Amino acid sequence: MIRRLYVLFSPTPLLLFALLLSYIGRLEGWGAWAAGPMILPVAFVRAIYGVYGIWLSARAESVRWRTLLAASAVLAGAVAIWLPVQGLTHMF
Known about the structure:
mainly alpha, 6 helices
């Protein structure tokens, strides 16, 4: 049951992050900079969500569930993967 719920809700972090970015993108001037820290708790929670999915994937008994849960974990943790990559690309 938990695996099914995890797979069902795994796209929500990415969708919520996209909504958050669209909200921040509409702000002007310093408003976007001030709203920027709202992204950090979202990324932290999504990293935990992704790690939990990997843990579920490792404990899955069939290859089908293992593959499905691993793909869902990557989808759920995509925000936590995207932010450091985005930060590094802006540094260099």
